[in-house]
Request: fold
Amino acid sequence: MTNWTKLIEAKIAVARRPMKPGRVHPNVRIPPGQTEVRDFPILDLGFRPLVPTTQWRLRLFGLVEQETELDWDAFTALPQVALVADFHCVTRWSQLDMEWEGVMACELLALARPLDSAAFVTLHGYDGYTTNLPLQALLDDDVIVAHRWSGNPLPREHGGPVRIIVPKRYAWKGAKWLKAIEFHARDRPGFWEVRGYHNEGDPWQEERFGWPENQEEDL
Ligand SMILES: Nc1nc2c(c(=O)[nH]1)N[C@H]1C(S)=C(S)[C@@H](COP(=O)(O)O)O[C@H]1N2
Ligand SMILES: [Mo]
Reply:
């Protein structure tokens, strides 16, 4: 059991400090087995839901004190940050210095207030996609619920209007067309995790697949 309230407050204090440019990995930027690209490839299940901002909602539910539903106005009224982060896809490409704008995940956690019994989340996309993370991972100060990329509204093919970016994990851990964050006591593997992707997905540890070699395929 974790008491999340204090942790979230501390993270918000950090998140709201003015941004200073900085790098998590100052020397080596490209994790093992990855190649640098600059054209931001598109990867999804082949179905790209059209979610106008007028219809978009973000729901936080499950083991929380306050189930929360945000519409576009409420979401964009939250404190906004700009974040530069590297993006690593398990299909072996990395794009550096991606410029995101949006809301820190910890701001959303502060609204919903996870119960002490919450320990994992499922991120849900409007296309039915899911992916799982420890709740603790959403407290990192580089996890952003993004609605802009490279100075423009996030394009539909990259998950617009809103996706979540978790820079310390392979990109499949960031749900495009973000619809809901669900809080659980126990871990629930998501779409790719039940199909053999690694449960944690740390690119620096090459946590690509949880099962043997023959799983190296992606959509
Ligand atoms: N909703 C949703 N999110 C998703 C996916 C998806 O199919 N649906 N694919 C994941 C995978 S496997 C990757 S590699 C990244 C790709 O993001 P991009 O298309 O913007 O490059 O999105 C992730 N998030
Ligand atoms: Mo992927």
